[in-house]
Amino acid sequence: MTQSAELEVRNDVGLHARPAATFVKTAARFKAAITISNLTAGKGPVNAKSLLAVLGCGVASGHRIMVSAEGEDEEAAIAAMRTLADRGFPTDMPQN
Amino acid sequence: MPGAGGVVVGPIWRYAGGTGGGTAGSTAAGAHGARARAGTEGPDHAADPAAAIRAAADEAGSQLEALAARMRDLGRGDEAGIFDAQAMMATDPELLDAAVAGVQAGADPAASVTAAAAAAAATLAALPDELLAARAADVRDVGARIVRLMNGVAMDLPDAPAVAIADDLPPSVAAELPPGLLLGIALEGGSATAHAVILSRGLGIPAVVGATGLVAAAGGATTIAMDGETGELVLDPDPAETAEFAGRAAALAARRLAAASLRGRPGATADGARVVLLANIGGPDEAARAIDAGAEGVGLFRTEFLFMKRQSAPTEAEQVEPYRRVFEAFGPERQVVVRLADIGGDKGLPYLGLAPEANPFLGVRAIRLAAGSRELLATQLRAIWRAAGRAGVTPSVMAPMVTTLADAQLLLDLRDEARAAVAASGEPLPARMETGIMVEVPSAAIMAAELAGVVDFFSIGTNDLTQYTLAADRSNPALAYLQDALHPAVLRLVAAVVAGADGAGIPVAVCGELAGDPLGALVLMGLGVDELSADAGSLDGVRAAIASVTRAQLAELARRALAATDAAAVRLLARDLLARVGSGAAAGPRG
Fold first, then answer.
1. Res. B311: pLDDT tops 80
2. DSSP string of A21-67, one letter each residue
């Protein structure tokens, strides 16, 4: 069973630099295989645990993304990614 | 083109790691001082190349994390962010999978890593977003680092003090070079705002950027002479040239020493015409350095540090303390000009909720934020009133990006509203707040006479005024040649601002980089500027240059500068003047 969520990126820079790092570090906490697609730019799906792949999606502010997870903790993973998007990919999130 | 001042003659050290391939082969090509090299096998390469790649990648990630931590300790958050991202790239699963796949297909391990990094870099470079595309160089640099570790090649450092020559010096390399080993930096790419240039200013070593063809021309050379002030580079100088550059270096050292001896005297020409020399500071911790440098006050107190790297706007209470510390450091006799937050545009902040802009430098910045975020500026003004009351000083405040009379009027309204709000809380308050505007938009310079009727002072920001007058994005290295504030078009606007201010009897300051350049300072004073505000480290040189000339000489310089047709001609005029009065022998080699 794959879990997916379509999300809107609402921060000021999109998935650049630190917000992208936050996104990738969050994805990496889960065992599930997680992918991200940039629906607006038609890129992906790519590995959400790879900073290079996520940067390569060129997600700008206002773009819509699709996050999918498959694995034992897929529901928790999608919930976490959704929370992250709702909060605008905060860069000062505790990461440990 | 000049990057950072200073003169040096020294051996060449080529940095090639971040460019082209970055494989063992190309590292060797650039390894003038490399100790080990690819021939000495790293451990167990042949046995398990995939494991060797992963081990080297882990090590690279740890090194980059350590660099990030060091930068954070030094308060250099931007560089720390770059290294954090590079640390993640080093252990990126997609990058490593691609590299391992290359090995399994029979490729050389180092070449596989380089190819994987190059492919990732190409993907990023192809993105329409410039910020993302700029990360391409970071990925290639990471690939080069992993390859170095796989080959057991120590970081390609010079063996002895040398001048670094490169296409570009990535921040990760620049930050790791032990300062004593670097005599100067000469780059084929880069601009005056490149990381490497900022680093060299901090180290007090010369830098030259944008030297097209340098790397190829330096092919077999072993020595280079460079003058960071003129941008001159001489490969394998002959004895006469070596002597000349050595002479310039000695004269420069003597001039710096002599200039330091003038500290504590106010800025004035040889015949007593005064100019107030002020410091630019970026926070309370820089006040002591400014006072030590003999600053007569602060002409630009940047407040952005309070607003960056946060998830919500700073409160009034949070702002009062830093303002009060600076006011108290300079006391009631010395002016401190607080600049309202110059944010928005390219310095977007998450809590402002601004839409991304196609042309951020022409966008919603600074005072223009008042339309949608009035409370941001109101809060800052209340904090300044409160801090000034507690410190017992009359504060000065200026707003950046003022474009119209309505902007200036808005500033005055915000100031008065803030005062009323603080007064209502019963706090002691100064009677007034000197209220000025930055003149950095051409419209404000052109309308200076009208603006002078409503505000207390002008402060010209020459960096932005140049960018807007010459229509050249200052962050675009390809247009760095247009980013020269000595261009007569900019100087004529400065003259217009002075004329407008004189009509109303208000003072004109300059707080852009031009004010800290001795040549620029002479031209500006000649144009009738009353105050010059610059980095504390620039004040000695400016003070000494001004002390060596007369009022009449400055007036003549200004007259001829206004009639010039390009920036180079203006620079030459100013350099000639310094050379004639003797103080500038080192600053004024034959153009």
1. no
2. HHHHHHHHTSSSEEEEEETTTTEEEEETT-HHHHHHTTPPTT-EEEE
